[in-house]
C-alpha cells in the first residue's frame, strides 16, 4: 500500500475510505464500491505539498537565524553596558584613592 494522504467518505455507504494514491482504483472496505482517483491531480497535490513543506522549512530557518542575530545583538549591548558601568566604578574608585 502506498502513501495514505487522506481519508474520504464513500459516496455509496458513507463509510471512510483511506485513499491509496499509488493505486488509481480504491475500494470502500464496507460496501466494496469502486472509487477512481485522478493520479495526475494527486501528483500535483503531492508536489505542492512538498513545495509548501520546503518553503515553511526555509521560513523557519530564516526566523531562527534572525532570532539568533537578535540575541547576539542583545548580548553585545549588554557587554557594553557592563563595560561602561565597570569603567565608571573604576573611575570613582581611582578618584577616591587619589583623594586619600
What is the structure about, briefly put?
The chain has 100 residues and is α+β, with helices and mostly antiparallel strands. The chain has one helix spanning 39-99; strands spanning 4-9, 16-20, 25-27, 34-36.
Structural features, described:
The mean pLDDT is 87. This protein has one helix at 39-99; strands at residues 4-9, 16-20, 25-27, 34-36. The strands form 2 sheets. A two-stranded antiparallel sheet has the order 1-2. Strands 3-4 form a two-stranded antiparallel sheet. With 100 residues, the protein is an alpha+beta fold.
Helix and strand layout, with pairings?
Layout: E1 4-9, E2 16-20, E3 25-27, E4 34-36, H1 39-99
Antiparallel strand pairs: 1-2, 3-4
Overall mean confidence score, pLDDT: 87
Shape category: rod-shaped
Uncertain residue ranges: none
Tell me the Rg in angstroms: 32 Å
Secondary-structure content class: alpha+beta
Largest sheet: 2 strands, antiparallel
Major beta sheet, strand line-up: 1-2
Distance between the termini: 89 Å
Put simply, the count of helices is: 1
Report the sheet-strand fraction.
15-25%
Give the number of DSSP strands. 4
Helix proportion of residues, in percent? Answer: 55-70%
Compressed to H and E, one letter per element, the order equals EEEEH
